[in-house]
Amino acid sequence: MVIAAHSGICHICGHPGARQADHLESVTDRPDLAWKLSNCKPAHGAPGNRCRVCKANCNQLRGGYSVERARRIISEKTGRENPPAARKSPESGREF
């Protein structure tokens, strides 16, 4: 459901083909949110699901750290300034 709701677009790198759900709030810190769909977004990372564009295992790069840290690492590896997901939504100003 998480993957379909976001069309399989990785919330970390912004590229299509994500097949793993990433918890936005850590399950360790917030076990009450473990099964809340609002706390999950698609990410690349499971074995066999490396991003075909930036070649990253986005969810594993993020680990227990911030999305911004994972995006910075991807940018450094690919030579791109900002992964597409780092853009702001024009409506809300929030990241998407």
In short:
With 96 residues, this protein is of the alpha+beta class. The protein contains 3 helices and 2 strands.
Model description:
It is a single chain. The C terminus is likely disordered. With 96 residues, this protein is an alpha+beta fold. The protein has a two-stranded antiparallel ribbon with strand order 1-2. The radius of gyration is 13 Å and the shape is globular. The protein has one domain. It contains three helices and two strands.
Walk me through the topology.
Elements: H1 2-5, E1 20-23, E2 40-43, H2 58-62, H3 67-78
Antiparallel strand pairs: 1-2
Shape: globular
CA radius of gyration:
13 Å
Derived from helix and strand composition plus strand pairing, the structural class reads alpha+beta
Measured as a percent range, the helix fraction is 10-25%
Low-confidence stretches: 87-96
Series of secondary-structure elements, N-terminal to C-terminal? HEEHH
Put simply, the count of helices is 3
**What percent strand?**
5-15%
**Spatial separation of the terminal alpha carbons:** 18 Å
User: Main β-sheet: number of strands, strand sense, barrel status?
Assistant: 2 strands, antiparallel
Number of strands: 2
Averaged pLDDT, please? 84
Strand order, largest beta sheet? 1-2
Number of domains: 1
